[in-house]
Structure formats: C-alpha cells, structure tokens
Amino acid sequence: MAVVASAAFGGCGGSSDLVMSELTEAEAQDLAGVVLVATFSSTGSVPQPVPTANGPQLVPFEITIDIEMEVECPLGGVVAVTAELGVSGDTEGPGGRVDYSMTQVHDACVVISENQRQFTIWGAPSLGVDLVAEIDGAGVVDWTGAIAGAVEWVTDGREGTCTLSLEFSGHAEGDGVGSAQLAGTVCGFSISQSVSIG
Fold it and tell me: Which terminus of the chain has a lower count of CB atoms within 10 Å, N or C?
C-alpha cells in the first residue's frame, strides 16, 4: 500500500508531495535500463591513457590508474565515480582491453528510459560496477559486466528504494551506437531485456 510521505527524506531530497511506493515490473525494467545507460555514460567519460611506443612493434603493455570524477547526467544531477581502470594491449596494436572496477554514487541523476519514463536517482548508498571492454581498433567494441547495489528513485510523484543485481553484455561498432543484453533482478523482479546504448 502506498503511504504519503509526511517528512522530507534526506537521501532523495523528497518532500511531503511524494508517495512512498514500489515499482511495477515494467517500471523496474525501465529503471534497469537507465542505470545501465548511466553506467556507460560514466565509462565513456573516463580518460583512457594512450601508450607511446618506445621500442619494437607489438610490445605488450598494461597500465592501471585510479580515477575520481563526477559525470553529468543527461537531464541534470551527477554520478560520482571512483574507478580503477586497467588498459592492456600492444603498443603498436590498434585494439586492446579495458577493465573497469567502479563505484558509482548517483546524486539527483535525471534520466529518461526508452519508454519515456523519467527517473531521478540517488545512491543507496552506491552501485558497484565491473566492466570489461574489448576493442578491435576498427571501431568494434564488445563488453561484458555486472552491476550490484541499490538506488533510491523518484518517478511520477512516487519514491522508493530498489536493489539491483544485473549482468550485461553488448556490442557496438562504427558510430558508437550499440545494444546490450541485460539480465538479473531489480526491485525483486527477474528481468531480461535489450537496451540501446549511445
């Protein structure tokens, strides 16, 4: 049963106008999709070091760097990202591999799902993300990964908290637009769906 909130909620910045609620299965699917898109926005903003060749061709390399940054969300708010980024490949090779291990804390991050449902999300307290991207050097990227944690959400005058445990894989080429397959649990619902990225 939905209950009208009677006080402000610090985590969501909520007010007495919001109604404590739960998401429907369709809304949970949409929330999973926008969380995945926000994750890719974060990785796309992480600077990736480009090694320079100091020796023979095809010298293997591995670089690990620590990053802290804030990434703006499409319609307002930010995602605070703490990440360990590993890049490996060959100094003269066109491709390589990027390993991300990230903690994301959403702060009033406003996003719209493919079904035109708007969410504002906060970390509850955060999401952990592991992602591996394989880059062939000719514009093709394949990735796999997992997201786990919880977020507070607001949509359509309602608010609540959802736990997420998701696995994903995807593919993009050329213009960077791609798709990902997403499966796992969100808000207690089992989901499996395809999400557009880019």
Answer: N
